[in-house]
Structure formats: structure tokens, C-alpha cells
Amino acid sequence: MTLTIAIDGPAAAGKGTLSRRIAEEYGFHHLDTGLTYRATAKALIDAGLPLDDEAVAEKVAREVELSGLDRSVLSAHAIGEAASKIAVMPAVRRALVEAQRDFSRKEPGTVLDGRDIGTVVCPDATVKLYVTASPEVRAKRRYDEIVAGGGTADYDSIFEDVKKRDERDMGRADSPLRPAADAHLLDTSEMSIEAAFQAAKTLIDAALQRKI
Ligand code: CDP
Fold first, then answer.
1. Which residue of 34, 57, 166, 202 lies most exposed, with the fewest beta carbons within 10 A?
2. 1-28+109-212: what fold?
3. pLDDT tens digits, one per residue of 83-107
């Protein structure tokens, strides 16, 4: 039986770093599902195709190769914005969710992070975490990330973006961002990455113990 760890949460909550560490710790395959939405958006933009045509976007979504996803190529702010726009389209979500579910069955186990993993993609996941932090902390983390990468950033506009993205992700009709009923909540507002990892590990170890 494949063990699956579902990690959901809002923009810049620290899911990515946490998921990669968890996958490494347990020797599991990791999929950042946000990249599947970003790759679809980038392919549309690169081909000069519209971002508001659901049939076209679905066709492009079905061609996304999960093995070729690279966050450094997909990290641009405009791609993130475009991703959250096409992510409201049910046909796009169906196509990407199918590919994500196939991935989740890889042996010996998988870690998937996103917005709807515990609720829609892997409702039977072995363990579900909902990782969050206050909008202020998330905006600060994103700000620090950009500055550390040598870029320039404006905290206030990042904060506005974070709130706008939350509204779009939580307010959409298809698969809105929300914790699954059986998810463990992990508020990392006051936690370092290391502390968040240790808290997650304790929850995961307990869940795996029950399954094995
Ligand atoms: O890293 P960031 O928080 O900017 O977002 P991301 O994980 O790269 O995802 C980009 C966008 O894709 C999100 O704002 C969501 O609208 C969408 N997404 C989704 O709808 N469902 C997922 N499972 C993952 C991402």
C-alpha cells in the first residue's frame, strides 16, 4: 500500500520547504501541485494563447509533463497570478487532478502539496496537514525570499497580493482552499522551519504507526 502525505495551505505558508524536507526524511516522491497549474499557465502565455478559454487551457493542461516541472523556471510572479486564474476552471482542474492522483500512487510513498490535496486529490491520504500562518508572516516570508535571491520587493504590495490570492483560492466554487475535516492544523506563524518540520514529523510518525 502506498503511503500518501497530503499538505495543503495558502500562498507562502512554507508548504514547499516543509514538503521537500518531509519527502527527503521518509524517502518518498514529492509533487508540488502548484507547479502543474503554473506550467499550464506558462505554456499558455508562451504560446500567446488566452487565459480565459477553458477548452484551450484544458488541452494545454493535459500535455503538462509532471517529470519536467522546475520551480526556478516557473517562479515569476505573473505566472503565479495566471496560475490562480486558470485554477478556477473545472476542466483544467480535472485534467491536472488526474495526473496528480496517478503520481500519488508511486511506491513506496508520496508527498503532495497544494490547495486541495486532502479534500479532492487524495481524500484517503495516510496523513493530512493544513499548514498556515498569518497573512503578515506569509508576506514577510515572501519578501525575505525575494530579497535573499537578490531581488527588490515592496512589502505592502506583497501583503496585498497574499490577501488577494487567499480570496481567489478560498472563494472559488471548484475545490476551494480549506482544511479537510481530518487534517491536522499546523500554524507556523511563530515557528522556524525546523520547528515546523519537527511538529509535522511527530504528527506523521504517529499516523504511520497506526497504518503499519
Ligand atoms: O507558491 P504559491 O503559494 O504562490 O502558489 P503555488 O503553490 O505555486 O500555486 C499557484 C496557484 O495554483 C495557487 O494560487 C492556486 O490558485 C493554484 N493551485 C490550486 O488551485 N490547486 C493546487 N493543488 C495547487 C495550486
1. 202
2. Rossmann fold (3.40.50)
3. 989 999 999 999 999 999 999 999 9
Distance CA 65, CA 46 (A): 16
Is this model's pTM higher than 0.85 or not? yes
Residue with cell 487534517: 183
How far apart are alpha carbons 179 and 197 in whole angstroms? 19
Among 84, 101, 161, 170, the mutation site with the greatest number of ligand 1 atoms within 8 A of its Cβ is: 84
Domain ranges of the chain: 1-28+109-212, 33-107
Among protein residues, the one whose CA lies closest to atom 10 of ligand 1: 34
pLDDT (tens digit, 9 = 90+) per residue, 96-151? 999 999 999 999 999 999 999 999 999 999 999 999 999 999 999 999 988 998 98
- Is residue 9 within 8 Å of residue 89, measured between CB atoms? no
Query: Which ligand 1 atom sits nearest the alpha carbon of residue 13?
Result: 3
